[in-house]
Design brief:
The protein is elongated and about 65 Å long. The mean pLDDT is about 85. It is built from seven helices and twelve strands. The protein folds into two domains: about 1-90, Rossmann fold, CATH 3.40.50; about 125-210, Nucleic acid-binding proteins (OB fold (Dihydrolipoamide Acetyltransferase, E2P)), CATH 2.40.50. By secondary structure, it is an alpha+beta fold. Helix content is about 30%, strand content about 30%.
């Protein structure tokens, strides 16, 4: 019962699995794991089967529970947003190899390889040739979609090849010297038409150079 209290299910000990919702079943599984008071708890895709709203609720509850218990949670997920929002430190794996470790902000802002840049937050991965054309060194680099600004003049020119409404933002896809560049515009921004020629700029500090062998 003490473990059920920790996962906010007091009095649920006598209920059968079929009487529980998806979120409640996840809490029961967590309570069972906590009964033996482990020093490290491995959670392998624990929220994958839940709908978005319930998953976000469980994320907050797991974070609060981890801080209250003071034990290490090893949380395995393929949801990059989930990893960024929940973790103190992240390890990015590819084919069984650790590609990079660091804080969520380090992983997001300073990826070391093309895989990490594209996998975590879907950054724009720029080839050495395009990086050079945009004023950087001839090396692989990354530029986050939300760091790019669209305007009528200045900067570099590109063609709008598509737009996608995402709710809180709109993704605008540009063709820049034959390469695709994604831009995220906040909700309410003026969205250019497909086929339009437009200029784009960014803060030089936001262009992250990963190196020639990234």
């Amino acid at each position: 019962e003490a473990a059920l209290d920790m996962v906010k299910l007091p009095g649920y000990g006598a209920r059968k699995t079929g009487q529980l919702s998806g979120g409640q079943r996840q809490r029961v599984a967590l309570a069972r794991a906590l009964v033996n008071k482990p020093k490290v708890l491995l959670l392998d895709e624990p929220l994958g089967a839940l709908d978005l709203k319930l998953r976000e609720q469980m994320q907050e509850e797991l974070k609060a529970l981890q801080k209250a218990l003071g034990i290490t949670f090893v949380f395995v997920t393929h949801d990059q947003g989930e990893a960024l929002s929940m973790a103190d430190r992240i390890a990015v794996f590819n084919e069984g190899r650790i590609m990079q470790t660091g804080t969520p902000e380090e992983i997001y802002r300073r990826p070391k390889t093309r895989f990490v840049a594209d996998f975590v937050g879907s950054s724009n991965v720029l080839s050495p040739d395009l990086t050079r054309q945009l004023g950087g060194p001839a090396e692989w680099s990354s530029l986050r979609p939300e760091d790019i600004r669209l305007g009528a003049g200045g900067g570099h020119e590109a063609e709008v090849t598509g737009t996608s409404f995402l709710g809180s933002a709109t993704r605008v896809t540009l063709n820049v010297a034959g390469e695709k560049l994604n831009v995220l515009l906040p909700s309410g921004s003026q969205v250019p038409q497909q086929g339009a020629r437009i200029h784009f700029t960014w803060n030089p500090d936001d262009l992250h150079v990963m190196g020639a062998d990234a």
